[in-house]
Amino acid sequence: MGLSKLEDIINYRFNDQNILERALTHRSAAAKNNERLEFLGDSIFGAIVADYFYLMLSSASEGELSRMRSRVVRRESLADVARKINLGPYLLLGSGEIKVGSRDRDSILADSLEALIGAIYLDGGFKNAHQFVLHWFSENLENAIRARAVKDAKTTLQEWLQGRGKPLPNYQLVKTRGEAHNRKFTVSCAIEPLDRELHATSDSLRKAEQLVARKMLEAIKACR
Asked: Could you tell me the pLDDT band of residue 194, with boundaries at 50, 70 and 90?
């Protein structure tokens, strides 16, 4: 498959086509493959994302910056963007990988996109790699910032208690009902400031804990 269409999609023309071809070559296809470019691209990608959050969020702590970067620099995000640019059909894979459908495997797509980022950096410098990442990962970056702005209920409740020197919430699984495909979990939550226990039910343990934590926060506000 000609690579000019891929270059049109990513809006970048390679000066050295050999670098692009190497970025698309999986280890199953040739001894000279994209693993070294993947290593380089992983570092460049992480640096660009870290730089973006550092400059955009001057009040964010080191921990917050690390968590936001982790939301973006992960296999799922890379594979999603690889699919958006239709990277799979351009990959050079060994016959065995082709037979098992590896063109659409998350791990191979993610690694290949990192290799592509490394290739753009080598061929065109940091500026071009920077433009590529900020354009194709713009939605991931924005979602990470929005997630930071809205803390989950469990975290908020925990911080409220810690700020007042109180013990952490006590969550207990009270009941599980329903078939495996339609399971419901009921969770209780008890805290020292309130002399009562609250309950919430949802289709996952995590959601039930979030719901009961939110109920507890509302109960705390009502008692103030």
From this structure: confident
